[in-house]
Each structure stands twice: as structure tokens, then as C-alpha cells.
Design goal:
By secondary structure, the protein is mainly α. The chain contains 13 helices and 5 strands.
């Protein structure tokens, strides 16, 4: 009997200053889950992270920390390929080619570009503008079927699909057109201090975000201070975005539905609820933090995983790049 081909999965994450609970619930947890049934490639996108000014020594450290944290969160080198984007030169090469098949107008419409250029008006560099093309190259190089991401990356994925379809329209079936893969709950975890904006690793307010390296006391303190509303019933109403956000986090980690959570906290105040969410998050993160410390200290293990990942990823990437080069007449 012919073996059915497993779907190919690719995703990436920036090594900028540690991961948040939003990154974990929105993306990384799905990375772990997909390893059972799919052929997975996961990368630390170091080239994307230099679109914002950085310190070289810090970046070098953060790239390794990001890889160690992904392993601690369950990325398993026995079942997935884990690599550093910059270790595979084909990403930058395909990105250039694809930029010639992407319109200026399309990139101008990207909301992340508009947000980030507003946040850093002193450094609106061309890399920030072409960032989504590099992301398209990451995905299309591996002929990925599925891309597990949070809701904020939907627009970038849509662009990658459009670039693939446009290219295929001119040269025949070169690229697989990828689909996004979003979590059932928690595709957009919000800031604990402003439930109208997403929890972001670059938020300067420490109380707005839970980092995966936060200890239990810090986690519980941040949840206690989370902005909610002046009522006292735990329920998922439209005018209660702070409570809905906490319910989303609790639901994503405990597997309980909103109705079950409402029942569990019936007649109890926000104080009890915030404490329960904090404890639930702290107990989810404790084993991850133990693993993270262990892996980060084991230099030769981490080096080995990343070298093996780079070599496996390069082999796959080269096949697509060679095909693209032939199709467009460079070879
Ligand atoms: P920043 O907000 O500083 O730009 P980031 O936290 O979005 O960075 P990325 O590396 O850009 O970090 O994102 C990695 C993955 O995490 C992406 O798939 C993204 O969609 C997802 N993600 C990021 N923030 C959230 C969030 N608040 N809720 C759910 N998913 C998220
Ligand atoms: N742009 C994404 C990170 C990213 C990515 C990718 C995600 C870069 N390359 C490829 C999925 C697939 C972000 O800002 N979160």
C-alpha cells in the first residue's frame, strides 16, 4: 500500500528578548502538537530580528536562548528539524527573487509594517518593509502545507499565498500554496495591562506580559494586577475584554470551556479567578523552565541539534532554490 505523504509544516519565531505567554499559546504549543502527524521544520528567524536595532552580543545570546526555549517547550529534534534561519543561505537568496514578484503596494498595506514604522520612526529601514517577503521565502522554500501562527500573522501568510500563486501562474507548479494553522483558543492573547492590544514581547511594561522565564511569584503578581473591569462576575461578555482574555488563557491551558470556567467561578470574585489563572500558568511553565535551564547549560547538545538542523534544512531548501533558478532562467 502506498504510504500517504505527511503534511509539511514550517514556522518561525524571532529571537528578540524571550518568549511571551502569547507566543506560547498562539504558536509554540501548536508546533509541539503537529510533530505527531506532520513533517515539521521550525526556525529561529534571526534575519527578521535585525529589522530593529539590536546589540550584537545580545542577539548572539538570544538566538541560542530561543532555540533552547523551543526545545524546552517540546520541539523534539527526533521528530522535527530545528534550525537557525541565517544558517541556511537559501532564505536570503529566495527572498531577493520573491521580492521581484511582490508589489510595493502589497507591502505598503501590511499592518505590522505600519505599526512598527510608527513605533520606530527613526529607523524605517527597507528590511522592515520587505520583512514579509523573507517570511514568504521561509515558508515557500520548504513547500510547506501548514504554517502554525498566531492571528497577527494572518496577513503575512495571505501575502505568501499570493506570491506563490502569482509565481505558479507564470512558471507552472513550483510552490505549494500554504494554509495557516491557528489555535482553537488563544490565537490572540492580549496585554494584561491593555486588553485592547496584543501581548507583545517588545512591550516595555513588564506587567503587561508574562515571559516564559517568569517565576511563580512574578506570574501571580502580574495576574493579580491585570486590568479588568468594575464588575465582579466571571463571564465572557463583550464589554469585559480583560476577563475574556484571562478566561482565554485559562481555557487554553486547562482545556476547560468558557461555560465550565463560568460555573467554576460562580459566586466568587475576580481575586479568586486571577489567582487560579496565575497558578495554572505557573504550573504549566515550571517544567518548561527546568528543561530550559538544563538545555541552555548543555552547549554541545544544543550546538549538535542546530548543526544537524541546518544541514537537513539546507538540503531541502536547495532543491526548491535550484528549481526556482531553473524556472526563471538563472540556470
Ligand atoms: P512583537 O510583538 O515584539 O513584534 P511577537 O511577540 O509578535 O513580537 P514573533 O516572533 O513576531 O513575536 O511571533 C512569534 C509567533 O507568536 C507568531 O506566530 C505570532 O503570531 C505569535 N504571537 C505573538 N504574539 C501573540 C499573542 N499575543 N497571541 C497569540 N499569538 C501571538
Ligand atoms: N513574521 C513572523 C515570524 C516568522 C514566521 C516565518 C512565522 C518569520 N518567518 C515563517 C511563520 C513562518 C512574526 O513576526 N511572528
Amino acid at each position: 500500500m502506498e504510504e500517504t505523504k505527511r503534511p509539511r509544516v514550517l514556522s518561525g519565531i524571532q529571537p528578540t528578548g524571550g518568549f511571551t505567554l502569547g507566543n506560547y499559546i498562539g504558536a509554540i504549543r501548536n508546533w509541539d502538537k503537529l510533530q505527531d502527524d506532520c513533517e515539521c521544520l521550525y526556525c529561529v528567524v534571526d534575519l527578521h530580528s535585525i529589522t530593529i536595532r539590536h546589540e550584537p552580543a545580545a542577539l548572539r545570546r538570544q538566538i541560542r536562548e530561543a532555540a533552547a526555549m523551543l526545545l524546552a517547550c517540546g520541539v523534539d529534534p527526533g521528530r522535527a528539524v530545528l534550525f537557525i534561519q541565517g544558517d541556511v543561505s537559501a532564505h536570503a537568496e529566495l527572498s531577493w527573487i520573491l521580492s521581484c514578484y511582490t508589489q510595493f503596494g502589497e507591502l505598503s498595506r501590511m499592518t505590522q509594517f505600519k505599526d512598527k514604522s510608527q513605533k520606530h520612526p527613526e529607523n524605517v529601514n527597507a528590511g522592515l518593509f520587505t520583512y514579509p517577503v523573507l517570511m514568504a521565502a521561509d515558508i515557500l522554500l520548504y513547500q510547506a502545507d501548514l504554517v502554525p501562527i498566531g492571528a497577527d500573522q494572518k496577513q503575512h501568510l495571505e501575502l505568501a499565498r499570493n506570491i506563490a500563486e502569482r509565481f505558479n501562474g507564470i512558471y507552472g507548479e513550483v510552490f505549494t500554496v500554504p494554509e495557516g494553522y491557528f489555535p482553537k483558543v488563544g490565537g490572540r492573547v492580549m496585554s494584561l495591562q491593555d486588553p485592547a492590544s496584543k501581548m507583545s514581547k517588545s512591550d516595555e511594561n513588564e506587567n503587561a506580559k508574562i515571559m516564559l522565564t517568569d517565576g511563580p511569584d512574578a506570574i501571580i503578581r502580574k495576574f493579580k494586577r491585570a486590568v479588568t473591569d468594575s464588575e465582579s462576575t466571571v463571564c465572557a461578555a463583550e464589554n469585559k475584554p480583560g476577563i475574556v482574555n484571562l478566561m482565554t488563557i485559562y481555557s487554553a491551558l486547562s482545556g476547560r470551556s468558557f461555560e465550565e470556567i463560568e460555573r467554576e467561578f460562580e459566586g466568587r470574585g475576580y481575586g479568586d479567578f486571577k489567582l487560579a489563572v496565575g497558578e495554572c500558568v505557573a504550573s504549566e511553565l515550571a517544567p518548561i523552565q527546568g528543561e530550559y535551564a538544563r538545555i541552555l547549560a548543555d552547549k554541545s547538545y544544543l550546538d549538535g541539534v542546530l548543526a544537524e538542523g541546518a544541514s537537513r534544512a539546507s538540503a531541502l531548501a536547495q532543491r526548491t532554490l535550484a528549481k526556482v533558478s531553473r524556472k526563471i532562467g538563472l540556470k
